[in-house]
């Protein structure tokens, strides 16, 4: 087995009589951005859930550095170095944007509640360090102007920015982004694209599910296309754009016209 990879191999996921994944495989390499695309219901989110411990595959394997992690609960997957966002943001809308990002640092805590309550030096030093990390992520994502705002008062684009920032704050080795550009405005999208590229430049492996194919083309070195739970294409974004079956199933007539 190869080290340094997050891999799904021949994953089959069956819910009752419904086959959600049918022998799907994908690998995410450190320092590279891999795209995962397909129509709604093609199995993208199911594969994400298998990779991050929210589902245990019916058959097949999920490995990190060549070690089987299938069936590990999500919190242990996070501690192993895999963070994710969700298609529907999962944050506490009663917190501020900054507090929501701070939650992404929970897996890094070394000192417990009692140590913090007693104000022990180690716990206080750790708290200062965590707040410094949050400030750095907020600055990188250009959130300073609204980081003190309550999440419930933010636009959906900014809520998605918060969730991405929270995942980045976790210092993961691999980051899985589930449609991070949905609802994001043009200026926010530019910041998001720059930050995703920056993650790869810092050696983080990124798996990007996104309907915005322009963003896939801009960022990804490789793309995997799913249909009915099976991989129908693996290659470059340009190769996907020129693949007849991919265009018919996913990109549609607009892409066909663009390729002509």
Summarize the structure.
With 260 residues, the chain is of the alpha/beta class. It has helices at 44-51, 74-79, 97-102, 113-118, 121-140, 156-169, 186-201, 213-219, 237-241, 244-259; strands at residues 6-15, 18-28, 33-38, 59-64, 67-68, 82-84, 174-178, 205-209, 222-227, 230-235.
Write the layout of secondary structure elements.
Elements: E1 6-15, E2 18-28, E3 33-38, H1 44-51, E4 59-64, E5 67-68, H2 74-79, E6 82-84, H3 97-102, H4 113-118, H5 121-140, H6 156-169, E7 174-178, H7 186-201, E8 205-209, H8 213-219, E9 222-227, E10 230-235, H9 237-241, H10 244-259
Parallel strand pairs: 3-8, 3-9, 6-7, 7-8
Antiparallel strand pairs: 1-2, 1-4, 4-5, 9-10
